[in-house]
């Protein structure tokens, strides 16, 4: 299979902090891959290694079939990158940056640039430093999409965008992925966005790959059981697949992963008077999944 991104046993140690821990990840070419994880899970670190800004401490990383430590200028030209800082030279005008990029990228798509930028009230004569945060985001997204890259890597690109701009951006992103056969790799904390655009969901936790599947498939494997325990709620910690327990209006809500229907019978054996299972949203499923390993959950325990 042809992979856009491939890592093998990838580790990255910053001083004494292990940001990536023996991560093996294969992302096939095409489609939108969403990477999610708690704060500090290693998403940006993964991108930094993939783009050759950091060298792995162990293992390897390849992008479009090339070792990430040896990306040539020609290969970099096939990769678009947008990060949350939207770092563009502040002293230049929007029109200057656009002219520079148009010259640099042979597959420059002027109509796409104008379409994406048209969602923002940006004047070509404005200096980058004069733009609002969201407008700067709009400019860097328009520049990146107009490069018609084979691979787009986006680190929380919609942070700070208003609802309309966010929607416009996501539409452009999906259009890029389908129209251009491009691969989009995108990290975000916003599940409703991911639900809308992602073909593949990649969950990382403490620098390790924890799960990869289509978002729908992941959601189907997570269920919420609502149980009524008329007497004392038993100790539920040892239940298999348990992600999260919440007490809501006197009922016990259990978010569980990969459990058969018999899970309900098990709750009854533990004293539940009634049990009911429900499907859940991607947001709740991912949150439940991540909560187990989250620093705050560990502190609460
Ligand atoms: N330059 C650095 N020096 C030391 N530690 C770092 C450095 N950059 C990141 N880290 C640590 O590496 C870990 C992974 O950080 P990273 O920025 O990759 O996380 P992230 O998943 O992108 O998080 P967030 O969602 O908060 O942006 C964190 O524990 C962070 O504190």
TrEMBL record:
CDD domains, A to Z? ABC_DR_subfamily_A
InterPro entries xref list: AAA+_ATPase, ABC_transporter-like_ATP-bd, ABC_transporter_ATP-binding, P-loop_NTPase
Q: Name one GO molecular function term.
A: ATP binding
ABC transporter domain ranges (all copies): 5-231
Q: Mind telling me which SMART domains this protein's record contains?
A: AAA (SM00382)
Q: Which Pfam families match?
A: ABC_tran
Keyword Transmembrane, does the record have it?
A: no
Keyword field: ATP-binding, Cell membrane, Membrane, Nodulation, Nucleotide-binding, Transport
Keyword check for Plastid: no
Q: PROSITE patterns in the record, alphabetically?
A: ABC_TRANSPORTER_2
What is the similarity comment for this entry? Belongs to the ABC transporter superfamily.
What is this protein's name?
ATP-binding cassette domain-containing protein
Instruction: Look up and give the organism this protein is from.
Output: Pseudoduganella guangdongensis
